Amino acid sequence: MIDLHTHTTCSDGTDTPSALINKALAQGVKIIALTDHDSVAGWAEATAALRADIELALGAEISCLTESGTSVHMLGLLFDGTNAEMLTMLEQTRDDRVPRMVKMIELLNDAGIHVTMQDVEEAMPHGATMGRPHLADALVKRGVISSRDEGFKELLNNESQFYVAHIAPTPETAIAQIRAAGGVAVIAHPFASHRGEILKPEAFSSLVAAGLNGIEVDHRDQNVQERAMLHDIAQELGLVMTGSSDYHGTGKLNRLGEWTTSPEQWEKLEAQADKRRVVRAGNQ
After folding, report:
1. Shared domain check, 114 and 51
2. What is this structure's pTM?
3. What pLDDT, in 10s, does the model give residues 110-147?
4. CA neighbor of 243 nearest in space, from 258, 228, 224
């Protein structure tokens, strides 16, 4: 079982990196990717928690915006974690999350929905990358909503009046930087239409030109028709097709390993990194 998209308390998940590894082991996952939002903060803990029978693909999920303002998430896997330009891009994207959160809180307050930055900070695990899920958790605690899922459906999705875009690299810039750092780039859930505006099929040509390696085809937020379209696009463009859980612990309904990547597709993807960086117990 290969799951290439997961989150921990180092961004907006509810499991620590070591707890994630232990859960993956218990559920029979053989290869797991750690892809916290705009962060590599969990890499060391996850690596230290490795045991036999599981391998770790280190990475990050990078927040991007197209030139037209569409939100896109790019999974960077197997890149050099010491690459200065890569780390700078992640840091700049993280830094913009605070003023963005302040503006979203202001919009909610103006609409009579009371929540504070302190509420959001108290909902965040230490060292986490601030994001909308923490705002949702704060709203749950306030009794405004009952769950994160409700928060994103009603208040915090990309089409909401309370949504605020943030400064972020374009998908092409993120792909180019991932590849320059020796890694591989997989676009995450690109047709998840219920999240808001999605990429148009014709947009993939510029992503391929930038060096895109794969598409996350199988994901719970993409319906049968959307997955079929992505399958056809990947085949036409010669891209790797992945499947992933986008696991967040108790923060989302997504179950670890509910969608997976085939060994053949993983082998093809891993071969496109500039060197083998999969971490195994004993070779850290």
Report:
1. no
2. 0.86
3. 999 999 999 999 999 887 888 899 999 999 999 999 99
4. 258
